[in-house]
Amino acid sequence: MSFLFVHVVERNFMAYRRMWLVFLSGFVEPVLFLLSIGVGVGKLVGSVTVPGVGAIPYDMFVAPALLATSAMNGSVFDTTFNFFFKYKYAKSFDAMLATPLGTTDVALGEMGWALLRGTIYAAAFLATMLVFGLVESWWAILAIPASMLIGFAFAGAGMAATTWMRSFVDFDYVNIVLVPMFLFSATFFPLSRYPEALQWVVRVTPLYQGVAIERSLVLGDLHWTLLLNVAYLVVMGLVGVRVAGKRLTKLLTP
Amino acid sequence: MPVACTFVTTAPPLIVARGLEKRFGASVAVDGIDVHVEAGEAFGFLGPNGAGKTSTMRMIGCVSPRSGGELSVLGFDPATDGPQIRARLGVVPQEDTLDLELTVRENVLIYGRYFDLPRAAIRTRADELLEFVQLTDRSNDRVDNLSGGMKRRLTIARALVNRPDLVLLDEPTTGLDPQARHLVWDRLYRLKRQGATLVLTTHYMDEAEQLCDRLVIMDAGRIVAEGSPRQLIEKHATREVVELRFRSESVQHAALPRLHAIGARIEELADRVLLYTNTGEADVERLQADGLETETLLIRRASLEDVFLTLTGRTLEE
């Protein structure tokens, strides 16, 4: 284990200095959702009842879920599309592996960059929420590390999945997984709207863990089950990194 | 024993391979080769596509584990000390792996960072190297906009950023036009003169003859001959080669008995016949006196191509 992976992060930093518009887009997306769904649709919905908190305005309900979703989307995008391009077409990793860097450094470096980027987005979105008056508790400050954790989990899974991708056509599968999670992880309506059996299905999906954590922190409603959500995401990220590292070694250094 | 001599003999070889093998599933890419490369040498692997050159280079470059045999690079074992070895290598891969999202200069800068070198040192080094490969005026261009030859030169500059003890070049001029090739050769020649150890693969005979002090000829994963270009030609070919082309295949076929009568070794190819001889002039005179009609006739010095043809019965670039 070395610290050489920071140079992989540095490489991305160097490249994105000229692509700051692309960089900015990751921040704009959740804000657009907040305005259209949270504020716009929210006017029609009124309030939502959250167990343990009571009735809250709809935009206050949706905002933390958007925070979790943007952490997922950003990290998945970096570790699937971008990662695949570098691995398959730009051969960036082949160049790195001719130096003292190893496949683990490459995986950690790419993930580190995804997390760094995600953290900046999370902080910016949280600040936006604050401006809109959607933050209820000082616990919300922990929403930033929570976003990093969500990013870590999905970066691991995304990177591992990408090692099995053969072409860009395969990335349709990524959306098949992401879009339903985005829509149904208690993002836009509470879990109680589902029949009992379906509630359990939602409870075991990864984005739900993130939404549950972010919502609790922003609303200041903490309970011990959050530890389960955290543990879920930690394991998901670790398994992902491990699998991705092994697969990359097999693929890039045959 | 003279002191100088002891000094020379104790300098350890940079690469030692014994019975080195590489298998991919059931197929054998490298089938037990023995190689040693000394410091300061320009060493070549010459062979057609699929001979096992790139697999060998990747094993030496510590990006592909060996399947069998022994391998030591810079005195270390690639299986356990990959990062330490790679820290002292400069690798020019067959396919361009330049960073397309960065500028020419940034490519060298970030590559130096991968070696964990301090930024200030890399900046100075980058300027020297871009000067060396004649790309100073393109420093701030995106890599996309460079020609194939410029990309190759940049790849060479990048590979030198860590002042490598050993430079590995996998087909350094494949795909380049003649002028770009000569520019690359010129830079490699300078490197060689500065005392760098170069190991390169090529399927161009002229490249091997130009650049290599010593080379091995590979075919189907094995080494079929070893020596300096001159030694190989002397050992496996004659001094001269007469190339004869005929109007048609049937004319070529009809001429064969008369060619055999010369007594020299004959290689029959689809479009020409090669006559291996040490007395080209005299043989040609005899054939012409005999009334042999050829379309073109050429006496030339034997090349590594002839060595390869002699050893494997095939041409290099077919």
Please explain how this structure is put together.
The complex is a heterodimer of chains A (254) and B (318). By secondary structure, chain A is mostly helical. Chain A has one domain (6-252). Chain A has helices at 6-16, 20-45, 58-89, 92-97, 103-131, 143-162, 172-184, 196-203, 206-219, 225-252, and strands at 47-50, 54-57. Chain A has a two-stranded antiparallel sheet. In chain A, strand 1 (47-50) and strand 2 (54-57) form a beta hairpin. Chain A is globular. The mean pLDDT of chain A is 92. Chain B has 2 domains: 3-228, P-loop containing nucleotide triphosphate hydrolases (Rossmann fold, 3-Layer(aba) Sandwich), CATH 3.40.50.300; 238-301, Alpha-Beta Plaits (2-Layer Sandwich), CATH 3.30.70.980. Chain B has helices spanning 3-10, 53-60, 78-86, 104-114, 119-132, 148-159, 178-193, 205-211, 229-236, 249-261, 280-289, 304-312; strands spanning 15-24, 27-37, 42-46, 68-73, 89-92, 166-170, 198-202, 214-219, 222-227, 240-245, 265-268, 273-277, 296-301. In chain B, helix 4 (104-114) crosses helix 5, helix 4 (104-114) packs parallel to helix 6 (148-159) and helix 6 (148-159) packs parallel to helix 7 (178-193). The longest helix of chain B is centred in the middle third of the chain and has 16 residues, at 178-193. Chain B is elongated, with a radius of gyration of 23 Å. The A-B interface holds A 2, 4, 7, 10-11, 14-15, 18-19, 90-92, 94-102, 252-254 and B 24, 61, 63-65, 82-84, 86-87, 89, 91, 93, 95-102, 106, 109-111, 113-116, 162.
**Amount of beta strand of chain B:** 15-25%
Number of domains of chain A: 1
Q: How is the biggest beta sheet of chain A arranged?
A: 2 strands, antiparallel
Low-confidence stretches of chain A: none
Assembly form of the protein: heterodimer
Shape of chain A: globular
Q: Total number of helical segments of chain A?
A: 10
Topology (SSEs and partners):
The complex is a heterodimer of chains A (254) and B (318).
Chain A: H1 6-16, H2 20-45, E1 47-50, E2 54-57, H3 58-89, H4 92-97, H5 103-131, H6 143-162, H7 172-184, H8 196-203, H9 206-219, H10 225-252
Antiparallel strand pairs in A: 1-2
Chain B: H1 3-10, E1 15-24, E2 27-37, E3 42-46, H2 53-60, E4 68-73, H3 78-86, E5 89-92, H4 104-114, H5 119-132, H6 148-159, E6 166-170, H7 178-193, E7 198-202, H8 205-211, E8 214-219, E9 222-227, H9 229-236, E10 240-245, H10 249-261, E11 265-268, E12 273-277, H11 280-289, E13 296-301, H12 304-312
Parallel strand pairs in B: 3-7, 3-8, 5-6, 6-7
Antiparallel strand pairs in B: 1-2, 1-4, 8-9, 10-12, 10-13, 11-12
